[in-house]
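Data card: per-record layout.
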Amino acid sequence: MYTTKPVATSANNTEYGDRLFIYEVKGLCQSPDIDSLECPIRQSGTKFITVPYKRMNQEMRRINRMGGQIVSIKPMGASLPLGNIATPTTENQNGKSMTQAKEKVKVPVNIYKPKSPFIGKCLSNEPLVQDGGSGIVQHLTFDLSGGDLHYLEGQSIGIIPPGEDKDGKPHKLRLYSIASTRHGDNMDDKTVSLCVRQLEYDDPNTGEKVYGVCSSYLCNLEPGSDLAITGPVGKEMLLPDDEDATVIMLATGTGIAPFRAFLWRMFDELERQKNPDYQFKGFAWLIFGVPYTANILYKEKLEEMQAKYPDNFRITYAISREEKKADGSKMYLQDRVAENKEEFWKLIQDEKTHTYMCGLKGMEPPIDETLTTLAAEQGVDWKEYKKQMKKQHRWHVEVY
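The structure for this 400-residue chain is written out next.
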């Protein structure tokens, strides 16, 4: 990216007048106004200029004087759609540096629909809960060979369980967050994995134990079995392209699924070898709420990654039935956020920070309450601040 001078961004840069914007400009002609720049500008080329808010009108006039055309204006740090022009350079025939367009990645959606699902095959179905944990949670991997089902980290697929409902109609599909990277657990671009908990609850009328139709089907699925898959769907939870981003992940239970995909893409060695154009150098923070230590899904691999990348990855657990707060009450995810409130607040002010929340919908209100209090201590209205983060595509929520 070309700039008229080096510009540093800061989490404390919150005054609107100091906000930075990126001008994408084409058609500039070399002139005394820009001869001082470190690199020449081709008349037919594109230039990116970083401009403080208070100088926007002045810069527009300067660009007009040089015959340039402003193609777009974006706030510094705002999430850009996949496939926008990136900053890598290459050399032209004269050996001079020129901007190079990064390969566009289209977000795939609804390649397979409910009326014509893809028929995949279960390759493996492995338990994730250790002895002493609660419930049944399985890691399932499905073969996608012979089809065109591909996906990105943060998307979901639909599963159509066999059989009929109480009204004699075919069961409707259920959506599950994808737990593998786009290359799949086998790194051959031919599999997709899910993290599924068997739903169970007591019927309020009869007191009988009720088990979820699709979750029970999947948790008991035998390797080699066929199953109907739809999708992929979802653009809300996509991982940013920025290798220097800060990614905060708030998860409860199987809400870890999309974050497993994120973290494997960031830190798994085979993934890093497979993705030379994406080598994560930012900071990832997973705050994970579970009832027991035995319910920490993917614990060994997560802690192995943390040990290998201590400057880039942190895990904070909230184990509600084993850990207690100072007042003796249970420790929940929102309590860990409150414990780290100063660092958490500093991070989410930075426009390079993306915050994700995934898990049971009951997790959202207490986290909102905690952040409302935290923001108020800084003289900020959390409701309005969250709206701003959403507009910047930096606040991502998927609860169920």
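Known properties of this structure: The longest helix spans residues 364-377. The chain is about 20% helix and 25% strand.

See the next section for split statistics.
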